[in-house]
Every structure is written in C-alpha cells, then in structure tokens.
Amino acid sequence: MKFDRKLLGVLAVLAVTQLIGWGTIGLPAIVSREIAADLQMSLSAVFAGTSVLYVAMGLCAPWLAKAFTRHGARRVMMAGTIVAAPGFVLLSLAREPMLYFVAWSILGIAGSATLSTGAYIMLNEVAGRQAKSAIGALMLVTGLSSSIFWPTTSFLNDLVGWRGTALVFAAVLILVSLPLYMFFVPRRGRVVHEDAAQAKAADASPIPRSTFSLVVSALVLNAFVQFGLGAILIELLKAEGLSPAEAVAFGSMLGLIQISARGIDFLGRGRWDGITTGMVAGTALPVAMLILMASEGSRWAVAVFILLYGAGSGALAVARATIPLVFYDQTEFAKAMSMIALPLNLASAVSPPLLAGLLTDTGSRGVLALAVLCSCASLAILVLLGRRRPAVAPAAA
Asked: What is the reported pTM?
C-alpha cells in the first residue's frame, strides 16, 4: 500500500518522537540499581516509578479523549512534550523517593498525551482508512527504542550518571521532539470520510459489551507480560547467569527481532487482521518462556528465548494496536482506544514492580511461570474473539 507525502511526513515525525518517548522512559531498565543505591530504595520500588507513570497515563487517557477530539493530536502531543521535559529535570533532582515518584507522575501525564495512543489517533486523523497499515508501518520503527536507547542509556550513565542522563533526555524532548510536532506535522488531520460513517450505519451491527470486555482482557493480559518483562528483562537475564554486558547485549537484540516480526505482519496486512496476528504470535511467548525455564541458563537457551519472545512480542505489539480496528470503525476508534487505555496502563503499571518483586523473592522461574499463565490466558481469549469477528471488519485497511 502506498502512502501519500503528507502521511509519510507524519510517519517520519512520529517514528522519531515515539522512539524518543518510549526510549527515554525506559531509563530504569538500565540504571535501576544505581537509582536504588542512590535513593536507598529497593529494586521493586525503583520499578514502581514506571508503575506510577502508567497509572497516571491511564487515569488521564479518558480525560484527554475530549482534548484529542477538540484540538487534534498535534496540539495535545505538543503540550505533552512540554510537560515531559520538566518531569525528567525533576527526576534528575530527586534525592528521596517522594520526589522520584512525583517526577514519574508528571512523566505519566505527559505520556498520556504523547505516547502510543496519541500517535495512533494522529494517524487515524491523517490516514483515514489506511490507519491500520500506517500504525503497522510506525511500529516497524518504534520497536527499535530498546535497541537504540538501552545501549545509549548505558553509555550516558557511564559518562554523566543517571541524573545527567535524565537531563539529556529532557533536552532531547525540547530540542528534537517539540520542533518536529510544531513545524513538520499538519495542524489538523483530515476529517473522517463520510462514506465510512455511512457504511457503518448501513451495514454494521452494534458491538456487544461482552466483546469489548474480551478485547480489554486479552490486551491487558498481554500488556502485563510484555511491559513487565520489558522493564525487568536485563535483571531477568542476569538472574539466568548472564554478565551485565551480556544481558545488555542480548536485551538489545530484542528490539531488532521485534522489528523483523512487525515487518512480516506489515507485509501481510492484506491477508490477516489483528486477531489473527495475535493468535499466531501469542503461541510463541509461552514456548519461549518454557524453553528458558527448562534450561540451566545456557547461552543457546537465552538466544532461543530472545528469538521466539522477540518475534512473538513484536507481532503482538501490532495486534494490541490493531485489534480494536477489527470491531470499531474510524468514528469510534479514538473513543475505544481511550477507554482501553485506562485498564491497559494500569496493568502496565502493576507488572514491573510485581515482576521485579517476584524476581527478587523467587528468582527467574517464578516470573516466567506467571508470564506463561498470563500468555496462555490471553491466547485463549483471542481464539474466542476470532469467532466474534464482524462479517466485514469496520476499519479494514
């Protein structure tokens, strides 16, 4: 599918800003132990900062739905970027846990405006019925955030410490992300096509609430696993016996593998929808975790785990963003995404400290066992959702 110049420009801007946005908030994944020692906090408490971020994101999402509708994604994302910068400055100044958590609250408020949901709404404004393909194209790039920012964060931490790294991130947001939104994104995306609304009115049946609940449940379970493991992956690999350098090296490869999986989904966008992507990819996650559980920390098992988990999680990230498009058309997409954002972000908030605490108390086997259970439950719900597909997907691209 070909994109016009306007859409390509927006995709380029979002690719850069989403890489920066997700990469910078991944700070604890690399410097968690330094923060814990500096602020005299436990490892799980450090990761609770990320939890505060997701709670703030989830609570703000429904409120921001009206702002997105009234002012457009561009203005909302600009405002969020302006809010995020002082959040990182405050984080760099934290000398006690309270200020640390306040900083993450500010970053969460900003993230509700600037991260994935805002990007998808902007693409829906600009791309129209090409939204699914545009989202898939964007995620080909954003999956590189860990591969780019984990080694970058590690380098900056060695150079200027974690506090200096937070200040660098604040500067990048103001000097790179904000100008991109201001000068390289259209002031307002195109209005939703009338023929799409008319087609829905003529052909579509109301989506049952039970289906929405199943969609939320599948996405929440999946997000719990992926966001939790993403936050503690380096520590998990260390618990498997890898050195810190090896853990960062293996972890950094994850993003590249996720990109490959998203590329396969993007190339096949005309042949399967988000549910099919989720079901196929969802089988890889429990297999990957069981292989790692059965091993004795051998490097080959870690490599297989990274390969299978990276492929499955990469494709599932696309599925999380596009499954709502199977059931909701353009006119309802922003509302549905805003409603889904609250439980999704709450699950993402709970998982890092819970898995970090579980890793501390039971080791890697306890973390992997819980992740297998959640992944299998999510897969079962996706199979059920597959039987509830509308005759014609409302937002098929």
From this structure: 0.73
Phi then psi dihedrals of residue 104, to 5 deg: -70, -30
pLDDT value of residue 68: 84
CB atoms near residue 387 (< 10 Å)? 7
Are the beta carbons of 289 and 309 closer than 8 angstroms?
yes
Closest of 168, 186, 25, 183 to residue 110, by C-alpha? 25
37-48 per-residue burial string, b: 16 or more CB within 10 A, e: under 16: ebbebebbbbbb
- Residue showing tokens 């509708």: 69
Buried/exposed code over 66-88 (b: 16+ C-beta within 10 A; e: otherwise): ebbeeebbbbbbbbbbbbbbbbb
Residue whose token pair is 């299978």:
308
pLDDT of residue 396: 41
pLDDT tens readout for residues 228-279: 898 888 889 998 888 888 888 888 787 778 777 766 666 655 567 778 888 9
Which residues are CB-neighbours of 346 under 8 A, at least 6 positions away? 54, 55, 58
Handedness of CA 339, 353, 100, 35 (dihedral sign): negative
Query: What is the torsional sign of CA 373, 378, 379, 381?
Result: positive
Alpha-helical regions (H) of 297-362? 299-327, 330-362
- Distances in Å between the Cα of 100 and the Cα atoms of 26, 87, 91 are 15, 10, 6
Range of lowest pLDDT (161-170, 322-331, 367-376): 322-331
How would residue 376 be classed by pLDDT, with cut points 50, 70 and 90? Answer: very high
Contact 369, 293 (CB under 8 A): yes
Give me the phi and psi of 115, to 5 degrees please: -85, -160
Task: State what percent of residues in the chain have pLDDT above 90.
Answer: 40
Q: Are 147 and 256 in contact (CB under 8 A)?
A: yes
Based on the number of CB atoms within 10 Å of its own CB, is 214 exposed (0-12), middle (13-18) or buried (19 or more)?
middle
Residue 242, classed as helix, strand or coil, is coil
Look up tokens 């080959």; give the residue: 300
Cβ contacts of residue 192 below 8 Å, gap of 6+? 128, 330, 331
| Closest CA relative to residue 27, chosen from 285, 316, 352, 246 | 352
Do residues 31 and 160 touch, judged by C-beta distance below 8 A?
A: no
